[in-house]
Amino acid sequence: MTDFDDFTAKLKQTRDELKLQMHLASKEAEEEWEDLIKDWDAFVHKTQLDKSADEVGEAAKELGIKIKSAFDRLRKS
Q1: Is residue 74 within 8 Å of residue 36, measured between CB atoms?
Q2: Closest Cα partner for 33 from 67, 2, 62, 76?
Q3: What is the chain's mean pLDDT, rounded?
Q4: Distance CA 59, CA 61 (A)
Q5: What is the reported pLDDT for 56?
Q6: More confident residue, 74 or 55
Q7: Which is the most buried residue in 13, 26, 46, 64, by most CB within 10 A?
């Protein structure tokens, strides 16, 4: 094998590894998105139950912060 063949083989291996990593990352992001949508639905449900209850307001606030944080993580990835 020539140096060029070795170089090409290494590039191909790197390409394949990156392709796999991107696939795994997209699956991870998809799973996080699905969890986030469940949290969103819970957030909407809790805020509709009793908008004036203090404990619901606090729970909704905490859930809202969690959702915002997850949105930010997804945006960065």
Answers
A1: yes
A2: 67
A3: 81
A4: 5
A5: 66
A6: 74
A7: 46
